[in-house]
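Anyone able to model this chain together with pyridoxal-5'-phosphate?
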Amino acid sequence: MIHISKPYINYQEINSVTKVMRSGNLTQGGMVKKLEKIICKLCNAKYAIATNNGTSALHAALIACGVSKGDEVITTSLSFIASTNAIVMAGATPVFADVDEKTFNIDPTIIEKKITKKTKAILAVNLFGQTADYDKINKIAKQNNLLVIEDAAQSINASYGKKKSGNLADISCFSFYATKNITSAEGGMIITNSKKFYEKAKILINHGQENKQYNYVRLGYNYRLTDIQAAIALEQMKKIDFITRKRRSIAKIYTAGLKNLKGLTIPFESPNVFHVFNQYTIKISDKFPVSRNNFIKKLAKKNIQTKIYYPQPLFSIPHLKQYDKKFKMPIVSSIVKEVVSLPIYPALTIQEINLIIKTIRNI
Ligand SMILES: *Cc1c(COP(=O)(O)O)cnc(C)c1O
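re: yes, here you go
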């Protein structure tokens, strides 16, 4: 079976975890701090705070930069559910915007039309490893006195112009879930250049405790990362350039093998963006010889796993329907019917890639 994704774990990660476990310092032995430092260096950012997952990172980041009850946060209608759940968890109201047809990311030209007196922030997502259009997003934010939150769960090591993902907004978040480019099984990171946001986030992820033990200054959460997990991520970080290069080269082979097929659209790469291909997502339109469902079935018959990221717009999910203002969202509504993601991960062999391409070409 060729799986859709596979973490790139080797003896280095295993040895490092074993070492932490033998040390007896499972939580606060210094690995977390090391990881935070390395992430700061990667993003050329001032502050980083590790969390136990990407969703908690987003939740704490939103509160840290002042998003609270009654605020509206403009966000994309195509993402993993956590990017919107974090807004709801912070007590704010998500306001959905349609996406760009080519990049699948929030369409900046629509953001302005959604701004009201209650708008506090824009939460953009870098879907599939390609960053959103931050020059435009940050400009709109500046003109309207809004904050920008970057959901970079899928885009570690990507860049936008000369800047690294994780440093494209007022506050950014990574996820280290098992399917992300860098993993610690579960894990996350908050990144910012604002001392104020950093200090607040640090308190929020540790029960609301400030400076010394039992000094609680507000409601907080237990969102801390463990040293065991940080040990995994630290080894992964040593391989980040290899992992990125591998993913990009697999994408290049797919693109060469799948271009010019009727009804099949290969991923678009913005010229200004260094795409890290957390997913390789194609579109199967009704001009393709078979339906998307049959396409998936035919690949499954050859033991090739595919996945639909994502099968519905966020505003169609039951608990988020209440935020659907019934604006027309033609792009996302058609994208969700056409997208399908192909296997992409460093251990994928050239034989497997060629089999996938050949199978698709035969269909
Ligand atoms: C994975 C992901 C998250 C959440 O991260 P977890 O670590 O799974 O909590 C948030 N946003 C996006 C876009 C993601 O892909």
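The chain has twelve helices and 13 strands.
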